[in-house]
What does this fold into?
Amino acid sequence: MQTLADVVIVGGGILGVAAAWALAERRFKVVLLEERSLSAGTTGCTFGWLNATAKTTDWTYHRLNARGMAVYTELEARWGREALGMRGGGYLAWVGGDDAQAVDRLCDQIRRLQQWDYPAELLELDTMQLLEPQVRFPSTALGLFAPADRWVEAPVLARFFAGRVRSLGGEIRENCPALAFRYDATGRLAAVMSSQGEITAARAVLAGGIHLPTLVRMAARDPLDSERFAVRRVPGLLVQTPPGSALGLIERLVEPLDGSGLHLRPTPAGGVMLGADGIDERLGDVAPGEEPLALAAELLRSAARHLKALDAPGLAARSQIGVGVRPVPADGFPIVGPLASAPDVYGVVTHSGITLAPLLGRLLAEEIATGRCPDLLEPYRPTRFVGAAVH
It folds into this structure.
């Protein structure tokens, strides 16, 4: 079966469906190919934090994430929070006031965010206790509160985007991997071969997350292109306690800045979702598909130091445990742009996929429609890796 399309998107995670919707809104005929089901990869196992708060080492990257947050505000006004799966009432992080270096880092972060016009404020213990009365704060605690931060149920958002694509005449093909790319005699993209037949198309967007390097190798006409889309696979453990197990325990995203990387948020069903960077670093020995119950129990014990209710016997065994593998570009920043050897084919990957997906989808659609790179994408082109050692 042969299909005609303007653009083929490969990848049914949040970046792929966001790009598909942005292109469909510009009246491109789009076909999205997903080898499994929508959100089957990283999008289906993500913490879902929407923020620019954690991006303070680079102003350009902070600006990109702040713009991404602004797009969510637009979407919320247009479609409503429930349709998008958006939640939250800010982000609260804290340090012990007797740790002078930690206090200095916290205050520096707040000052920088304020200088960049991103809402953030320093809170003392009594105010933090009003916001989160169930949390055990150190008696000397000082906190950072970022009221604009939110979180999103990423699979809900992905389904919303997919629904909009279909309503605009686009196609979403699940269980349909891309198999090959065909070029004409002049080197222009002619078609994408899939397990459901050939799709004639003039453009393609590769949004395969951790599988992007494989897709680039498949599509590229020069093997050097794969070096420009280098991605590390970084596993992350997420534990979600059962529905009703933590009703009213916390109201927002919370994080003790104690070096553990522990982070928590409520779930719509009355549980808590939590992860910890320190535990993620030990996931290398976990076999694919295995549920690391011992690490999940350790994560809950760590969280129970701050929320006593999470110390319930057998809670880990009753919780939902998942390991998501996150795509992290070689230098940590997004990679967005065409393949050098196949300029009709674009690649897109970022570690901040949840925050940036709607914005990057719009920017990609703008570039495909106009033939010009949007200013916001200039720092994130794959050409920055030309001549660089990428590992």
Observations:
- The first helix runs from residue 14 to 25.
